[in-house]
């Protein structure tokens, strides 16, 4: 059974639509920045998922697939392409030699650092707008 909900007001619809528009503009910015750096948006997301993984600086293929919400075999293909571009490397796990960890190379670190600085600046610019829009959703 669905819980009883208050109706959504016109101003909330407007805030939600504006928030979605702002998110889409940010995603377009991100896609274009990745392209300018010679990456696909998914390759950029993969580098960020690896570097930003909680508690360590490597991931397994399964963890990467989960973070990117893609199938395991798609993550394998993505990593293959990133290895060819010398952005990541496969490293045998010290704990279990059957497992392979995916780490950024120094080139991958440099590309991600540049892209992340651009994204941080863009978020600083649009952050106040997003905050205002989110507040409008709570009305």
From TrEMBL:
HTH marR-type domain: residues covered: 9-139
GO molecular function: DNA binding; DNA-binding transcription factor activity
InterPro entries: HTH_MarR-typ, MarR/SlyA-like, WH-like_DNA-bd_sf, WH_DNA-bd_sf
Alphabetized UniProt keyword annotations: DNA-binding
GO biological process terms held by the UniProt record: response to stress
Alphabetical list of PROSITE patterns matching this protein: HTH_MARR_2
Organism: Prosthecobacter vanneervenii
Presence of the UniProt keyword DNA-binding in the record: yes
Protein name: DNA-binding MarR family transcriptional regulator
């Amino acid at each position: 059974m669905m819980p009883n909900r208050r109706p959504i007001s016109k101003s909330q619809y407007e805030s939600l639509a504006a928030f979605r528009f702002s998110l889409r503009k940010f995603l377009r910015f991100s896609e274009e920045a990745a392209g300018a750096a010679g990456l696909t948006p998914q390759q950029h997301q993969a580098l960020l998922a690896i570097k930003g993984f909680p508690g360590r600086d490597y991931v397994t293929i399964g963890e990467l697939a989960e973070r990117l919400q893609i199938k395991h075999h798609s993550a394998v293909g993505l990593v293959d392409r990133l290895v060819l571009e010398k952005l990541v490397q496969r490293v045998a796990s010290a704990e279990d030699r059957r497992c392979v960890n995916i780490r950024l190379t120094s080139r991958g670190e440099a590309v991600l650092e540049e892209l992340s600085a651009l994204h941080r600046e863009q978020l600083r610019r649009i952050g106040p707008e997003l905050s205002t829009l989110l507040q409008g959703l709570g009305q």
